[in-house]
Amino acid sequence: MKSDGGTGKRRPKTKHPGFGIAKRTDGVTRRKFLRNTAIVTAGAIVGPKFYVPGWAQTRAKSKIVRAFHPDATTGWSQVNQEPVTIMVHAAVCELTGIDNTADAWKSLFPGMTTASKVAIKINLACGDVPTHPEMVNAIIDGLLMIDLEGGPLPEENIIVHDMDNAFFCAQTGYVQNWGGPGVQYVGTDHPSLGWDNAYVFPISHPHGSITNHKPSKIITQHCDYFINAAVIKDHSDSDVTLCLKNHYGSFSNVPISQLHQHGYYGDGHTRGEPEFNRLLRDELGDKTKLWLIDGTYGLFDGGPGYVPPYHTPPNWAYNSVIVGFDPVAIDRIGTEKINEERIKHKDDPIPPSPLILDPSHVTAAAGAPYDLGTDDPGNIDLVEFDASATTGVDDFRPGPGREPLLTTYPNPTRAVSNVRFSCPRDGDVEMVVVDVRGRLVRRIAQGRYSRGMHHLQWDGRDEGGRAVASGIYFCRADIAGRRRQRRIVVLR
Q: For the chain, which terminal residue's Cβ has fewer other Cβ atoms within 10 angstroms, N or C?
């Protein structure tokens, strides 16, 4: 089930064979071909409005990037943080055309300051196949890399959210945290949040039915920028549940027949998904700066899956991430990838049915009156590459004049805390965990490290191997002569 790909020191790129790209058959090796493949751009994007930054609208096509890493998952339950982090950062660099990772992330958020807030909308509707914490950790890592007037974005200014607070649980891998230190993890139904009564958006349906919907206060009151982080799954009614449908968790009054079903009210998905995304663009500030599909584990058949605490295990280890600026194009690519996997299983005792999915809401979103992007394969520039073929930390080195980066995640944590840090140059590193009084709890690094990004873990234990109690701790690092400190909240 692992994805294969080319090898080589730099990121090799290829094109989706179903999108007008011919394969070389003249004896050139796969490694040489992938290393030398050029990005071809031609044609024009259809529609007058898109969810893309202004600087990206000059592209001849809607660019979608798929990065994959064969080590992103192990078995059917383990997502591996470091390969996922490399994969996500490499995808963002390729999408933006900027090699320096911190600068690539910064380019997504024009005008960002240390007072800005970023919301990350995830999908936890299937407890076994959520937007995985490791994927979100990689996004958070990128946000904390951004240099904002000499300082980082405060962790508390990052909000990871979905509709239901109960979904932030052990099954999905998230810990609720609203108002505490560190990154905020919360559902819209939290008592201090809810739906914004200042906005009521009607949707008209056949037979005279009208439904009214309110946006999450997280969107209207608690964020300046927005990242849509979906997960790759099919859907028993809408065919797929990718980025466009992810916003069914951003508005109230969505589990109704007019939006979810076919029949008396026609195809509700041709109105619901496009309209919610149009509202976000035209009525609620157009805050979305990145569309992302978590393709580590997915469901090519059997989705959307049961909600927590019930189970629908993944049946697809795709080991990928897909990113773009066009929500329609990214959903079209996600659909094609699901279809490719479904075709592989056409001879199974119970094959997927139908074999080919063609979600009506994706086509509708591309047309009037929504004009959210393009679903025309001829107008999609798909770039795919194997992130494991990069030079690892060498490709993601911070600039020599930059301050050291220190991030910890998840935060809060119940057990293991992942620590990533950057060295702006070769030098000595000492890293310890201390309590609120500054007393040593655990030494986790001491030695010389090369310039670049590095990854460590603290297992939540002290020097004697005992699990520490719930509370606030600090990861304190001296990196090449510079002091950095990050707070870690432990919840037992």
A: C
